Fold this protein.
Amino acid sequence: MAVLVAVIGAVMPGSGQAVCQPEPGSSTADIPPAYLTLYRAAGQEYGIGWHVLAAVGKVESDHGRGPGPGISSGRNHAGAAGPMQFMPGTWAAFGVDGDRDGRRDVYDPADAIPAAARYLKHGGAPERLRTALFQYNHSDAYVDKVVRQARAYAQRTPNQLGATSADCAGAFSAVVPPGHAAAKAIAFARAQLGKPYLWGATGPGAFDCSGLTYAAYRAAGLSIPRVSGAQWRHGPRVPVGREQPGDLVFFNSGPGTSTSNPGHVGLVIGGGKMIAAPHTGTVVQIQSYRRSTLLGFTRPTAHQRAGAPASGAGR
């Protein structure tokens, strides 16, 4: 529910970041507002780009408006049903009750859209997006069509309330990080979206900022220090502009912090975005790291590639 409320508001609590919304005439103006909200909510929940889900919905049923059979009732010639076009066996395995009304209705976009995200996630998205799309529909032409549509939705989301097209594309894009450990860390962090901030927590139900990055790399098989200042000193440093998905991004913010002891840290996911647990009263969320308090970046995976032992966790 916290994630859904945040998406409806188009910005997570406490983020204070730019808002990405379609406006008339944009490439996303063809998406019904209710569908767009559902795509974004499901994308947040399952860690898959909203634009990918929207592209599947566009290709499968024109966001529930297609004239063919099997969209609002019945089945099409292949036996698929609903706005996201599920086969009966697939729906039985992956259908969800997205709106918590006690029913899993393949014709209800509130159920069908998160079910599609769940199925794509099972198929390997976002890291293996083409593989997941091919599992969804066994056609290379279909995969190409969805990818083209997703790229169009992501790249042309208009500038509104301070957001650039690059910001909107990067906020939920399926960036493939350079290296298995970085990919695992990002996948772990994405799975925590919507969980509450709690000072000193390292999961599973809540996190503070460094607790999230510590737990993400622990899940990836790498040991890094527990607190943000020690993570910063653990290094190695990465020049601004050379950061990559999986890097840690640090900020000179919070009581008692300095350039040698940053008080906030997030996990870079690409496109100027990070996953972070900001502060009390917020939840784990996707934010921009382009702010005046940005201190710099480090690359935990460099220790792995260099074959050096990682430092043990400590407070």
Notes: Confidence is low (pLDDT under 50) at residues 1-26, 156-178, 305-315.
